[in-house]
Design a protein that fits this description.
By secondary structure, the protein is of the alpha/beta class. It has a single domain, classed as Alpha/Beta hydrolase fold, catalytic domain (Rossmann fold, 3-Layer(aba) Sandwich). It contains 5 helices and 5 strands, in the order H-E-E-E-H-H-E-H-E-H. Strand 2 and strand 3 form a beta hairpin. The longest helix is centred in the C-terminal third of the chain and has 24 residues.
Length: 166
């Protein structure tokens, strides 16, 4: 979100990102972001039996929220405004929210706007929200370990690429 607003940010590493602004957590029903003291349009949480949520497994709530097409359209982060390359990392078994689905939404938007900078998505099988085996939020121990081992060098390579462009 910040990189879509501030041109001085010249590259983005987005680990299990959102493609939209969501309602902030809690009962207030407010946006999770503001810009110049103004609330940014957001996707509200749908009616749901929140008593079913265990261990921060909100993925079903977020999947339902993403079906609100009008709200999603208004709250989509304008990733095409980012002033540099983008590295996206997602866990296909994310139980916090559907990061792989939202990364696909980001890629589709970048493609649709003929984004002029380098961008790439790495979606990891059997990996969750943390992409790390120390704190599982979906996926398996081994899947998250592999995601961590693979994503670390990709992050360093990305940082080298961005710093060499200066």
């Amino acid at each position: 979100m910040l990189a879509s607003k501030y041109k001085q940010i010249e590259g983005v590493i987005a680990t299990v990102p959102s493609s939209v602004v969501f309602q902030g957590l809690g009962p207030q029903g407010k946006s999770s972001w503001s810009y110049h003291s103004e609330s940014i349009p957001f996707v509200p949480f749908p009616e749901y039996d929140y008593g079913k949520i265990v261990n921060s497994q909100y993925v079903e709530v977020y999947k339902l929220a993403l079906k609100q097409t009008e709200a999603v359209e208004k709250a989509t982060i304008k990733v095409e405004n980012i002033n540099g390359p983008i590295l996206l990392l997602a866990g296909k078994e994310d139980t916090m929210w559907p990061s792989a689905q939202m990364c696909d939404m980001i890629i589709k938007r970048l493609d649709g706007y003929n984004f002029p900078h380098w961008y790439k998505l790495f979606s990891y099988e059997n990996a969750g929200h943390s992409l790390n085996e120390e704190y599982l939020m979906g996926g398996t121990f081994e899947g998250n370990k592999q995601a961590r081992l693979d994503s670390g060098p990709r992050i360093y390579n990305f940082l080298d690429m961005v710093s060499s462009q200066k």
